[in-house]
Amino acid sequence: MSISSETLQLAQRIWDYHHVNHELQPADCIMVLGSHDLRVAERGAELWLQDYAPWLLFAGGLGRLTLGLWQETEAEKFAQVARQMGVPAEKILTESRSTNTGENVALSYQLLQQQQIKVNRFILVQKPYMERRTLATFEKQWPGPKTEILVTSPQIDFNNYPNQDVSMEEVISIMLGDLQRIQIYPEKGFQTYQAIPSEVWEAYEKLVAQGFTSHLISE
Asked: Which stretches in the chain have pLDDT values below 50?
């Protein structure tokens, strides 16, 4: 499928919206949310190696994109990446039962409680186009005391993000699915409200009309 420059410009608008552009500060724990993208694990390990936090927590069982693709859970796969990059095993925590972002949050809270690790500030690591949705979900679903949340992702621009595992068409479709969820999930109680600028929603509607609908859900 050939993608026009106009389509890429519309998609770039949505990609930029999904980024929350937080300035990172030292934290109590780096929490990496599971996915199919090992670059997310690498970003989390890099931050630990740069002394941003004493603990590195990987959360994720087998989700929609990894079930049937991997034998290991997302958390276990990510932890292996971190160990290979030099993070000591004793500084890594894994939560391997969750299948979605909300479960990532709730089950990670249980794990930290069990380990008696108090967290006043988190650095959350996700895919670039899931930064805002991760923030909104965490703000709503975190069951403990109010915690400061900083969100980051692999430092890769939109044009260079697709690789052998995910095509540009798939990236655009996933981004639209995440934007749709940002719009409808607050009413369902899953996420906090996030304002969506009119030009971003206009780009969404144009891309949906072009057929990038494979990751949309029935409202």
From this structure: 66-67
